[in-house]
Amino acid sequence: MTVWIEGATGKAGRRVVEALTAAGVPVRAASRHPGDVKGLVTPVRFDWYDESTWAPAVGNAEALFLKGLDSDEKAATIITRFLDAATSVTRVVLMSAVGVDKTPDNAPRRAVELAVEKSGRSWTILRPSWFLQNFDEDEWVFARALRERNELYAGSGKSKVRFTDTRDLADAAAAVLTQEGHEGRSYTITGPEQLTFGEVAELLARTSGRPIHHVDATPEEHRAHFAKSGRPEAWVDHMLHLFKLVRAGVFSPRTSDFESLTGKKPRTASQYAEDNWQPQTPS
Ligand SMILES: NC(=O)c1ccc[n+]([C@@H]2O[C@H](COP(=O)([O-])OP(=O)(O)OC[C@H]3O[C@@H](n4cnc5c(N)ncnc54)[C@H](OP(=O)(O)O)[C@@H]3O)[C@@H](O)[C@H]2O)c1
Q1: What is the pLDDT of residues 208-237, one digit of tens each?
Q2: Is residue 113 assigned to a domain?
Q3: Residue 21 within any structural domain of the chain
Q4: Which of 75, 121, 213, 225 could pair with 69 as two cysteines, CB 3.0-4.6 Å apart?
Q5: What pTM did the predictor assign?
Q6: Is 182 contained in some domain?
Q7: Which region holds residue 263: left if phi is over 0, alpha if psi is between -120 and 50, else beta?
Q8: How many Cα atoms sit within 13 Å of 175 on the Cβ side?
Q9: What backbone phi and psi angles, to 5 degrees, belong to 122?
């Protein structure tokens, strides 16, 4: 079986590539900026907004790992057309997000879930919570303000989140892609502990030795902060909506889905911090 992986250079997809190839599974690693062929990894050029790239990118892959076009209003329509054209594909694993199943059917991400469910393929949905890797790898959500000003900028109040390490998401994806018995099922992939963003700031400060602190912005301040990113208005709206959900406690469910799928304990935020936020030694 060859697996086609969307967003293969991103926070999640990159780790899915690693987890599958470690299990001996050949992958087609799709992104707009593919690198060179290496071992079991064939990077392929793919752009959701250039349909001519779709069929050559998928090739004869039998399975897909989809991350699904973020907050594009037309995501479900585009993905339905893409799946209709991907005739070699029998299995689809969609990475959605915690809480999407509780949103209206016409909300873009829920519409994508329903499009995958109706695709006529064997499907599985993974719903991770906020990624820990946002803190060091997502330039506009957290990484830049942390790097430049030691600010963990998050209008979250004292609400708690059960964060997900994308390495766990990848292990879960590899499990459902390589084992039988996950057809038509959805799994919630979260870490073991609930933390406020203030507690995350303390953890990163302790581990890195830097004066990292939480900035608990109002929604207006947060909008102005994100507006500086130059990202589209729809992205800013989406981010503010996500923080509203944080304040509503949506990202704190505890499930044992990860343990059941992989037989392993989910990684803690401390493990993530130890691996990524050690003090810098001067070179
Ligand atoms: N971040 C979170 O906390 C979180 C939590 C739960 C769920 N999620 C889900 O995860 C998804 C984001 O995944 P991620 O964080 O791994 O992504 P990411 O790190 O932002 O990476 C985006 C990937 O998509 C590729 N890409 C960007 N534009 C593209 C286009 N037009 N066509 C094809 N590929 C394109 C990028 O590579 P190129 O630039 O080379 O194309 C890159 O590989 C979201 O849809 C969200 O629903 C995120």
Answers
A1: 999 999 999 999 999 999 988 888 888 899
A2: yes
A3: yes
A4: 75
A5: 0.96
A6: yes
A7: left
A8: 20
A9: -70, 125
